[in-house]
Structure formats: C-alpha cells, structure tokens
Amino acid sequence: MVCAARRLDRIEALAKEIDGRAIQCDVTSAEDVAALAEAVGDQVNLLVNNAGGAFGFEPVAEADLDAWRRMYEVNVIGVAAVTKSLLPALIAGEGQIIVMGSTAGQVAYEGGGGYVAAKHAVKAVVDTLRLELYDQPVRVCEIAPGMVKSEGFALTRFEGDQARAEAVYAGVAEPLTSDDIADIVAWVATRPAHVNIDRLTVRPRAQAAQHKVHRVQ
Question: What does DSSP assign to residue 176?
Fold first, then answer.
C-alpha cells in the first residue's frame, strides 16, 4: 500500500496505521508524479484519485480566475497526470481506477462555478477513460459524494473562515463523513473483477438534492 499526499506528516501517520509506505506527492507537480510512478513499481492493483478541493464561493461575475485555475489543476489535471503515469502498471496488475468526483459534477449551484466546472470535467475524464480502456483489464469508477462533513473541505473553500464552514452543515443532523466515503471506496474496490461500478452517487439521507437539505433547529 502506497499513500501519497502533499503533507508528508499526515500521510506518514496514515501509512503507519495500515503498514504502508508514505510518499510526498503534489499531483500538480510533474516531478512528484513521476517519482510516485517510479516508487510504486511495475504493477498496481488499485489507484484511488482522491486529491481535489474547492476554492472560493463567488458568482461567476466575480470569479477569482486564479482560484479556478488551481481547482482545474488539482481536480482535473492532477487526476489525468497520476492516472496516465500509473496506467501501464494498472494494466499489468489488472487493476482498478477510482476517482473521487462530486455531485457538483452532475448539478450546478450558485457560487460553485469553478468547482462545478472542474467536477464536470472530472466526470468527463472518467467516462472517456472507461471508453478508451474498454478492451483492457482495468475497471474505472467515479464516486460522487454530496454533503460530506470532512476535516478541511469547507474550511479550504472559505479560506479558514470557521463560521462560514460550520454554516454549511448547520442543522444537518447526520451529514456524510470521511469514514462513510472510505467504506464506499472499499466496497467498490472489492467487487468481483468482472463487475464495474461506473458511477456511485452518495448523499446523506438529509440531502435530497443539491438545494434540498433537511435542517433542524
């Protein structure tokens, strides 16, 4: 098991828990991605493309285009770069590619223009890749979560504004958690080799759609 992330201290802690190897890797760095491919070797059974994030919540008319570029680099180019780099090893290992998408890749919402655009692009990359690998022993899946109360997603989007981040989940008794998503990744990854889950959309029960969330006082 190889664990790769920008923050080496975090990934070292995870690797220790699961008896894996920790590698520092920024998916927007060609050098880091090449080093990752060299480190994992000639055969890979599973690639989980989990890097991503949203930056900002402005309307398109007020868009921070540098933030949009960052989102595209991390969410889309990063997925493409890592997948391209590891694809020969995935084919050799008859492996699986799981990409972390979002319901933002299915439905637009106000203030989400840059992130919505990036996640729609992620969906397109996944669907194109599946078509291109139809004759190869590699499965391709996108997991598209809705509202997940994770450690840093909303804080990153709102540049550390704790009050705005907490408001996203205010009144939602049971949003999804990172553990829920990890459990789904494990389920997808352990289906029989002939079974491909093309796309799995998951929301908390309280979220019927992007704009319809049950909140309690």
Answer: B
